[in-house]
């Protein structure tokens, strides 16, 4: 914070950097094995209905109890893309940790391992699994996982992000 003296009166200059939740780090400061967890969330029928409206996915497996049970499901199944959305890095501390060095979210992949239904509580996490320097940038790859309230892995995948590096040159995986 900076102070300025004007006519015997001190004022404090506003600096948005003073409002960081955590000190920002650069690509070089990240470490393989770091985990960024999102708060748990319990899905409701309202969440599914909202996602159905936004996605326009009107398959009966997502809203029709009779249809879902007739086809081997215990209840309507939450949309897979809705489950994947729970791995959004913005739901974790990751964007706060990397601050202004974020350039792009470049890749996502996943496998849906178990069905998710309304009433399930999801526990998402991102774990850094590789750091690949590319000149004055770097690729961060994370393992994305979601467990349910029973400890079952319901989604597994990866994300890749492009970040600015502190300096161009010879960066090494940590």
TrEMBL record:
Domain MaoC-like: start-end pairs: 32-129
UniProt cross-references to Pfam families, sorted A to Z: MaoC_dehydratas (PF01575)
Alphabetized InterPro entries for the sequence: HotDog_dom_sf, MaoC-like_dom, MCH/BMMD
Cross-referenced CDD domains: R_hydratase_like
Record-linked SUPFAM superfamilies: Thioesterase/thiol ester dehydrase-isomerase (SSF54637)
PANTHER family membership: BETA-METHYLMALYL-COA DEHYDRATASE (PTHR43664:SF1), MONOAMINE OXIDASE-RELATED (PTHR43664)
Designated name of the protein: Dehydratase
């Amino acid at each position: 914070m900076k102070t300025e003296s004007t006519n015997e009166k001190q004022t404090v200059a506003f600096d948005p950097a003073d409002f960081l939740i955590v000190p920002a780090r650069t690509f070089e400061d990240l470490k393989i094995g770091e985990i960024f967890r999102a708060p748990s969330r319990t899905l409701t029928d309202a969440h599914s209905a909202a996602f159905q409206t936004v996605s326009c996915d009107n398959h009966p497996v997502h809203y029709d109890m009779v249809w879902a049970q007739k086809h081997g499901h215990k209840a309507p199944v939450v949309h897979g893309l809705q489950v994947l959305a729970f791995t959004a890095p913005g739901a974790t501390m990751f964007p706060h940790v990397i601050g202004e060095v974020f350039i792009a979210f470049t890749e996502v992949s996943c496998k849906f391992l178990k069905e998710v239904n309304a009433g399930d509580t999801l526990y998402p996490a991102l774990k850094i699994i590789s750091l690949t320097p590319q000149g004055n940038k770097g690729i961060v790859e994370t393992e994305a996982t979601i467990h349910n309230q029973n400890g079952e892995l319901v989604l597994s995948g990866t994300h890749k992000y492009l970040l600015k590096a502190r300096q161009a040159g010879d960066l090494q995986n940590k």
